[in-house]
Amino acid sequence: MPTQFSRRSVLQLTALTPMLRPLLAQIRSANAAPSVVSLTRGESRRTNVFEALTAIDQQIQPVLNTKKSVAIKVNNVSTVNQLAATHADSIHGILDYLAPRFQGPVYIVESAADDTLEGFDNFKYAQLVADRKPQEVDLIDLNREAKFKVVAMLDYDLHAKPARMAARLFDPETYIFCASMLKTHNVVVASLGVKNMALGAPLHSLRGEPQWNDKRVVHNGLRQTNYNIFLAAEALKPFWGTSVIDGYEGMEGNGPSMGTPVASRLAIASTDFVAADRVAVETMGINPEWLGYLRFCSDFGVGQYDMAKIEVRGEKIAAVQKKYRLHPDIERELQWMGPMTELPRLVG
After folding, report:
1. What is residue 5's predicted lDDT score, i.e. its pLDDT?
2. Alpha-carbon span 272 to 38, nearest angstrom
3. Angle of CA points 120, 188, 139, to nearest 5°
4. How far is 118 from 249, CA to CA, in rounded Å?
5. Which band of pLDDT confidence, cut at 50, 70 and 90, is reported for residue 340?
6. Nearest to 295 by CA among 309, 274, 272, 280
7. What value, to the nearest 5°, has the Cα angle with vertex 238 and ends 232 and 241?
8. Cα–Cα 20 to 30 A to 259, which of 49, 84, 133, 333?
9. Which long-range contacts (CB under 8 A, 24 or more apart) does 16-25 make?
10. What gap in Å lies between CA 109 and CA 83, rounded to an integer?
């Protein structure tokens, strides 16, 4: 005889669901196999990336073989400063890995903070495409493509607000490589793979059009930005393939666009984007508890953030670690961890 639930019981269970999700994530994590992250070091950016991907080939290929296309999501937070943007040699490293393994079209995609095509031109991506003709590589400005999926975010006043995010990053037939870097950040401490996806997905208007920018929906306050990156990551995660973090030359200080270089000479790769970011945080000598959005991702099962459950292949973290100088506003950035004093007390 089926169990009977009253309407009141169902409502009580529904109310408890948000509180149970972190517990369920912990149970899943305890029973799951360790996440695998590769860590390479050397004097060639391109070779570092290629070898990092080759080291986790067994994790990549089974899923890659089921896809019709590949999208390499680059990070062009600046369209003029190469230190702040994905280097062409990093993309070459990904394409070197793909060359014998994937025969379909490959798209280099971005929704840059400014004009995406300006960044493509300044960072020599067009020349890269010309150099890789046998691989059917093309460039796509996600803002000009203008196809989107709406994801709910929180605005500064903690009201729900829709954000238009690039539809191509939600395509189940596309294998997505995230090509990010090691960088400090002016709001969320560090900008790595998860943030590249979450803040690169929202679209904005083109020059000459009525102005709107849904990146500002996601990126609008300390607490809100950390939480919104988590919400975006949760929505995007089912479509993620592999995170590649280029640390050949990282950025410290006034990141993510105006900092100074750090010669870390490493690369990180994983099919678990959160685990890749955790290893990256360790190589930068940053306290992992300070990154709210990654902690939220961990709590809700988006990825593995516990080093005890991450298998690092290749270099030892201690051998490549360099302590990055953080953004001058780091003390204010960490206020997301404190009590909520800017709103009235709870009522009811």
Report:
1. 44
2. 11
3. 15
4. 22
5. confident
6. 274
7. 100
8. 49
9. 21/299, 21/300, 21/301, 22/299, 22/300, 24/301, 25/298, 25/299, 25/300, 25/301
10. 18
By DSSP bridging, strand 160-166 and strand 148-154 are antiparallel
Range 59-81 average pLDDT: 98
The CATH code that applies to domain 33-334 is 3.40.50
Q: Phi/psi of residue 237, each to 5°?
A: -50, -40
Q: Is the pLDDT of residue 308 over 50?
A: yes
18: pLDDT strictly greater than 80: no
Residue 12's pLDDT is 55
Residues in the chain, overall count: 348
Phi–psi pair at 187, nearest 5 degrees: -130, -45
Domain range annotation of the chain: 33-334
- Residue 13 has a pLDDT of 46
The model carries a pTM of 0.91
Checking DSSP bridges between strand 266-270 and strand 35-41, what pairing results, if any? antiparallel
Residue 191 makes CB contacts below 8 A (sequence gap 6+) with 75, 77, 180, 181, 183, 184, 185, 255, 256
Read off the tokens for 218.
């996601």
Non-local (6+) Cβ contacts of 112 within 8 A are 76, 77, 79, 118, 119, 141, 143
pLDDT, position 150: 98
CA distance 40 to 48: 6
Q: Write out the E strands in 279-346.
A: 310-314
